[in-house]
Amino acid sequence: MPALLMLALLMPGLAAAEPPGVGDHRGGTLHLSAVGSGxxxxxxxxxxxxxxxxxxxxxxxxxxxxxxRGLAGDGIVADLAEALPEPQDGGRTYVFRLxxxxxxxxxRPVTVEDVAAxxxxxxxxxxxxxxxxxGAIMGAKACLExxxxxxxxxxxxxxxxxxxxxxxxxxxxxxLMKLAFTHASILPADTxxxxxxxxxxxxxxxxxxxxxxxxxGIFAERNPYFHVWSQExxxxxxxxxxxxxxxxxxxxxxxxIANGQVDFLYDPVPLDRLGELGSRxxxxxxxxxxxxxxxxxxxxxxxxxxxxxxxQAVAYAINRHAMTILYGGPAIAGPLCSxxxxxxxxxxxxxxxxxxxxxENPAPEWKxxxxxxxxxxxxxxxxxxxxxxxxxxxxxxxxxxxxELRDTLRAIGYEAALRPLQPALMFSYIQNSANNVQIxxxxxxxxxxxxxxxxxxxxxxxxxxxxxxxxxxxxxxxxAPTQALIxxxxxxxxxxDAARNDLWAQVDHCIAGLVPATPxxxxxxxxxxxxxxxxxxxxxxxxxxxxxxWVQ
Amino acid sequence: MLRMLxxxxxQMVFVLFxxxxxxxGVFFATPGADxxxxxxxxxxxxxxxxxxxxxxxxDRPLPVQYARMMEKxxxxxxxTSFVDHGAPVVPEVMAAAPVTLSLVxxxxxxxxxxxxxxxxxxxxxxxxxxxxFFMGIGLLGLSMPVFWLGEVVNLVxxxxxxxxxxxxxxxxxxxxxxxxxxxxxxxxxxxxxxTLSVAFIGLYARVLRxxxxxxxxxxxxxxxRAKGAGPARVxxxxxxxxxxxxxxxxxxxxxxxLVGGGALLTEVVxxxxxxxxLTYQGLNTLDLPLIMATxxxxxxxxxxxxxxxxxxxxxxxxxxxxxxxxx
Lengths: 552, 327
Prior knowledge:
A: alpha+beta, 2 domains, 4-stranded antiparallel sheet, B: mainly alpha, globular
């Protein structure tokens, strides 16, 4: 227990931040480890944070996230573009001017044709976010349907002025953020229109992949053609080589880091090692905010959760303190009342479903479950005694949380059971309405730091596809007034940041009122690094930022 | 001879067909196993889903999908993973095979040497405290799950006592190819192979002891003794020859299933990129092509091993060969 207390002392933000060093820290090899590979090397296809965090040091878009610690890293800066353009035509047009003198790692210059071709390639290659992120570009609809013939009329390159103009069919207030996502990386125009698989594309950032074996690892070296054009968009790297090896279990990787054989582990640190890290390796252990929520989506189309009171009962009954303990304790997680994690603005800051509170009179924070109220709501809903199955991923933490929820459901009057599913298929299983999943527990992380990633992605009408395994609006929720607020927050480019955040907070409040899902906990990222790793540099979007740490 | 070969080949094809249909059927019968959404990526739009479904042929009838997969696995050999898009699985299995073979060769060396020694000593000194001690230890070895033993070995050699003189030589977990460094190869495999062999030493020593003791009651041994053979010749020559049939058949099957991927847990715990770990990874990510390739590979090995064992039987005990010829 003292060990856990020690860990608790390592509160977020307190990790010592060393000032950036100079040339004497340049060189060496950074050794990274992951249990398994993250799939394809195609930056426009891969959707795993394991590779996206690495790709952030290799590929660039027209825009990029600021490479800075903490909240500063949530900001958008111009990357391959000279400056961030002002939206024109009511947010339907953006004109970017490409920087001059930037080359790919094969020596060829980056041109405006490369930019236009890369945007087309998002559709030609079938990028997972082609529809959700870039569907507003003029011509995107035809490209989505017939990828091979994609022309994407909405992206116009003008080589004489080095400009690329984007025409959108409707305004998108987050378009610049979406262009900063790795799926909009700029690749050479002749990059094949199929998933690159194991073959790396030429890079623009400080590193390029020189060898890849999905069973062995990724080996990256310096990009000889890289020079710094914007310190905050793409800074130069310290280490000469990055070796990302696969195969060590999470337990073995923690031991290897302690032995100095590995510098960083991608996978979560196993819970049974947290105490040891807190007591023996305090200086090497960092706890950082992570834009992730655990939530319990409830299917609003089938009993018992087609009844609002039944859903409210769950929100009142769920023991968020117990869930926090099951996740690893208050040092690395906390009860959550909003669907948006606390690090982001644009969220409901009060707690409607806790003892002594209501939607009209919310408490400032979560206190305790209110089982009495929950039982009364279940009785009123007329759903008492119904059978409910909780679906979770078959992993120790998720299963423990599922057991807790099952017991809670039993305590408020349901005949509840738990169904743990293979982690690889659980997520697509709970999305498919044909599987009639009533309630589940799932974690969800943002692609970029915006409340939309939680509120629109998970509850937007456009994200519910009945009978499909790709339907991230898991509850099947669609409420016209809520959707109107979401649409305004997404499309009105005249709003100030504060006004937009206020809109998102209203959306959050609407969702809390209709409870298509109940938030459970938010979490922190426990990062364990080797003793020799210096200049610990953690960003919201890319976790440990590999180009900014040094090993000598 | 030709007929026998043809029969073996037919048997192999039949086994491979049965297993592949089973793996394929179980995969697609699993609720939520449709790989489209996982390949397309989180939150993929219906259009992207449709594209993936058609590109991978998931919109075709299952028998057609099965036939295409088998064609890609055995004929064109360009079957690619559903997870590591574009990674051909056949070369992956072939690259992993030497790792597993190295591990199993080392382990079998340990388990043959130790089990022979313990089995013979226990049989000769039957019912003495030495026999009871060895059999007790053997039972203990047999009862310890290999993944637990492996984790304990790692805890001791990689973590708690890693910096002591005793274990400072232990290399980081992982594999070193023989071509890169023979010494590194041996060092990397020593502890995993010993861990893997512990249960087999326990089992084989017990089997050998029992067989040896049973053989001692046979007429042939009495005759050997009557002809003046000394105890060493009786036990090691006549005794072993009479009792190693079951030992050899057991060895053949175990060796084959380990080479085929049965050392999965040892490979995972010691981070050895062998066929077992590949299977484990395939199962973890529900990567059907990888699962299919590793299962087929294992099946081929087990069927081949059966054939080899039958041949060795004939060599060890001419009566078996004669019986076959006499048919």
